[in-house]
Design goal:
The complex is a heterodimer of chains A (299) and B (313). Chain A is an alpha/beta fold and 299 residues long. Chain A has helices at 5-12, 43-46, 99-105, 142-151, 172-178, 197-207, 219-232; strands at residues 17-30, 33-39, 52-56, 67-70, 73-77, 87-95, 112-119, 132-137, 157-163, 181-186, 193-194, 212-216, 236-239, 255-257, 268-270, 277-279. Chain A has 2 domains: 12-119, Elongation Factor Tu (Ef-tu), domain 3, CATH 2.40.30.10; 132-287, Nucleotide-binding domain of ferredoxin-NADP reductase (FNR) module (Rossmann fold). Chain A is built from 7 helices and 16 strands. In chain A, strands 4-3-7-1-2-6-5 form a 7-stranded antiparallel β-sheet. Chain A has a 7-stranded mixed β-sheet with strand order 11-10-9-8-12-13-16, sandwiched between helices. Chain B has one domain: TIM Barrel (Alpha-Beta Barrel), CATH 3.20.20. Chain B has helices spanning 3-8, 88-99, 115-126, 154-167, 183-192, 231-244, 258-266, 277-280, 284-298, and strands at residues 16-18, 21-23, 27-29, 52-53, 70-73, 76-79, 106-110, 133-137, 141-142, 148-149, 172-175, 197-200, 204-207, 209-210, 215-216, 222-226, 249-252, 271-274. In chain B, the strands form 5 sheets. An 8-stranded parallel β-sheet of chain B has the order 3-18-17-12-11-8-7-4. In chain B, strands 5-6-16-13 form a 4-stranded antiparallel β-sheet, with no helix packed on it. In chain B, a hairpin with a 2-residue loop joins strand 5 and strand 6 (76-79). Classes of the chains: A alpha/beta (299), B alpha/beta (313). At the A-B interface, helix 1 of A face strand 5, strand 6 and helix 8 of B. Bound molecules: flavin-adenine dinucleotide, flavin mononucleotide and FE2/S2 (inorganic) cluster (FES). Residues 52, 63, 67-70, 92-95, 97-101, 139, 142, 241-244, 276, 293, 296 of chain A line the site of flavin-adenine dinucleotide.
């Protein structure tokens, strides 16, 4: 009478898994920013752009909870010796902001780590051939790389990338190598144009009024992007952050306010399960918390 | 454990009975850390657990608190989820069919904002055959009586347990809050009011401040502390309660591995719940079960009951 677990997983189409694995490399690519490749056989075939993983920093319970990170990309490395299969990896790109990411930055090739993933709801690819504009603020660039690599096969893709200084502008040449036209702005003008990435978005939307927009970055930037798109009736998908404990929809700690939210009848959506990518119109922009805490992606 | 070692040994009996509910082992999830069971099926087989305990349910769906709802503290976490849940009707309609596909007993955790609500939910749950037992969360304020928390006052605790008892034929576990001066007073009150078992502890109320913004880390200002930080407090309370009452006690608070669980069993808990550790390692409960079994083998015990309450003073 009792159900078999393998059948159940097939029935539910569950893809996530806990990987007990090792680090392949962990390098500082810009002051305070690191790229870590982690061995993860089978991960690439399951992962979609916009999804994330929960990283267990170390086996000791310090920090206690896993930390969420976007999937920057997945790929293959040549095997250590001939005749072996290539090594499948998942790569994350992270900024050192606190205790957990500090410890991560000190990990090395061969260190044992655990990751849970791929998790959450990713981006949807939108209409073929329509221009796609990706807007990234600082570390918010992370989920856009895999998205761009999926979109370039079917549509023209443009990246608008903003950061505080040149140090916060990451991986732009890699986007260019995909064939993405990139545009950079910094608050201090140390790279690209001086000013806000949202100004560039307005200009692009004049040229491509029926473009589709995808954005990830600090909450003030997302709000500005949303206002611009809303006024022009442009389709927008955003990737959000929230404080997470489980990453799988069990703790209900990671909610954001939905479009139907009111003080009397609250509507909370689970960021790890319904998100982290949301269609902009499903969210309550009037009241989404602009608190710094809800935008760990701030550059 | 290694299969070669297994082959030579008879497996110890880990099965226990709590409040009349038979469990294949003494390990189950703590309410609110395991969703409605479904969330963790990609990582473990529910049939391996002693029981499944659901997220706390109420008469009507509850939206929960504003965010941020969680923050990490030293060896622990604070949460103020606000008991968000789908409500009893949606639970029966959407979640029970899934849970009833497993052999594992299902324990439904529930709460109310008034005596009437507690009574009504109890009556609704009584009719559902797929539910093996209920766990009554009395850590909630009674909104009709000045917000006094049922579980902090022996008379209020007794009243709510008696009422639920009168509406429910199923096994009744009462979950105690640690935010009291003397937990044994409450334990005795709920035993006398008709509880079949006691579960302790729920989270300890705490607070944390973001010093730069001068704001509380949680929107709700205060939250419930869980995780390894609370384990010594939980072990002490389980010990005191087990000394006080005759009904079985379920120990919960900060269990991450088998050694942690053993502490609770040794001071007198018949079973244990694993909460926050599920977030850190979704297979934590399986490791706890395997580790308890291995410990029994290493200590030459053929039954877990040789361990329960074996504290040497
Ligand atoms: C879905 C998702 C994807 C993410 N992707 C990336 C990514 O690709 N690269 C990256 O560098 N970061 C990413 N983050 C943010 C990252 O999880 C946090 O920076 C990290 O958890 C901080 O850990 P810590 O121990 O170093 O900091 P802590 O010591 O825990 O905190 C330091 C500071 O970071 C803030 N913080 C902690 N956790 C979070 C969180 N979950 N979200 C926002 N702020 C937080 C705290 O409020 C505090 O101000 C993502 C977050 C989410 C929810
Ligand atoms: C996110 C979260 C949600 C919880 N929700 C409930 C709940 O709905 N009902 C309840 O009785 N206890 C709830 N608890 C308390 C746990 O069941 C448990 O008593 C407590 O966390 C201590 O155990 P731990 O240290 O192993 O987590 C919750 C705990 C956490 C961390
Ligand atoms: S992080 Fe636990 S529900 Fe989203």
């Amino acid at each position: 009478m009792s159900v078999n677990r393998t059948e159940l997983l097939k029935e539910k189409g569950e893809q996530m898994q806990n990987y007990n694995t090792i680090i392949l490399s962990n390098q500082e690519v810009s002051p305070g920013y690191f790229r870590m490749r982690i061995l993860a056989p089978g991960f690439g075939a399951k992962a979609r752009s916009g999804q994330f993983l929960m990283f267990r920093v170390q086996h000791l319970l310090l920090p206690l909870l896993r930390r969420p990170f976007g999937i920057f990309r997945v790929g293959l490395l040549p095997p250590d010796c001939e005749g072996m299969p290539p090594k499948e990896y998942v790569e994350i790109l992270y900024k050192v902001v606190g205790g957990g990411t500090r410890i991560m930055s000190e990990l090395h090739h061969g260190d044992h780590v655990e990751l849970l993933g791929p998790l959450g709801n990713g981006f949807t690819s939108g209409a073929v051939k329509k221009v796609k504009i990706l807007v990234g603020g600082g570390i918010g660039l992370v989920p856009l790389y895999m998205l761009a690599s999926e979109l370039v096969t079917q549509s023209p893709v443009r990246l608008l990338m903003g950061g505080r200084t040149r140090d916060d502008i990451l991986a732009v040449t890699e986007f260019e190598r995909l064939g993405v036209e990139t545009y950079v702005s910094t608050d201090d003008g140390s790279l690209g144009e001086e000013g806000m990435v949202t100004e560039a978005l307005k200009r692009k939307l004049v040229r491509f009024p029926d473009a589709e927009v995808y954005a990830c970055g600090p909450m003030p930037m997302l709000k500005a992007v949303r206002d611009i798109c809303y006024k022009r009736g442009v389709s927008l998908q955003v990737s959000l952050e929230a404080h997470m404990a489980c990453g799988v929809g069990a703790c209900l700690g990671c909610v954001v306010k939905g479009a139907a939210h009111t003080e009397e009848t609250p509507q909370y959506l689970c960021c790890c399960k319904a998100g982290p990518v949301f269609m902009a119109e499903t969210l309550d922009w009037g009241k989404i918390d602009t608190d710094d805490k809800s935008c760990g992606g701030c550059a | 454990m290694t299969t070669s070692k297994m082959a030579n040994l008879k497996r110890p009996n880990l099965s226990v009975e709590v409040a009349g509910i038979k469990m294949r082992n003494p390990v189950m999830p703590a309410s609110g850390t395991f969703g409605y069971g479904e969330e963790y099926t990609p990582f473990l087989d529910l049939n391996q657990l002693g029981a499944v305990v659901t997220k706390g349910l109420s008469l009507r769906p509850k939206a929960g608190n504003a965010m941020p709802r969680i923050t990490e503290t030293v060896s622990g976490m604070l949460n103020a989820i606000g008991l968000q849940n789908v409500g009893i009707d949606a639970f029966i309609r959407d979640k029970v069919p899934f849970l009833s596909r497993f052999e594992t007993p299902v324990i439904v955790n529930f709460f109310g904002n008034s005596l009437e609500e507690y009574g009504e939910v109890a009556a609704r749950l009584n009719d559902i055959s797929a539910i093996a037992g209920v766990e009554l969360n009395i850590s909630c304020p009674n909104v009709k009586q000045g917000g006094i928390v049922f579980g902090t006052d022996p008379a209020a605790a007794s009243e709510v347990v008696s009422l639920v008892r009168s509406r429910l034929q199923k096994p009744l576990i009462v979950k105690l809050t640690p935010n009291v001066t003397d937990i044994t007073v409450i334990a005795r009150a709920v035993e006398e009011a008709g509880a079949d078992a006691i579960c302790c502890i729920n989270t300890l109320t705490g607070m944390s401040i973001d010093v730069r913004s001068r704001k509380p880390s949680l929107a709700n200002k205060t939250g419930g502390l869980s995780g390894p930080a609370i384990r010594p407090v939980a072990v002490r309370m389980v010990y005191q309660v087990a000394q006080t009452v005759k009904i079985p006690v379920i120990g919960v608070g900060g269990i991450v591995n088998a050694m942690d669980a053993l502490e609770f069993l040794i001071v007198g808990a018949t079973a244990v719940q694993v909460g926050t550790a599920n977030f850190i390692d979704p297979t934590a409960m399986i490791s706890v079960i395997d580790g308890i079994e291995q410990f029994c083998i290493d200590e030459g015990m053929d039954d877990i009951h040789q361990l329960i309450g074996s504290l040497q003073l």
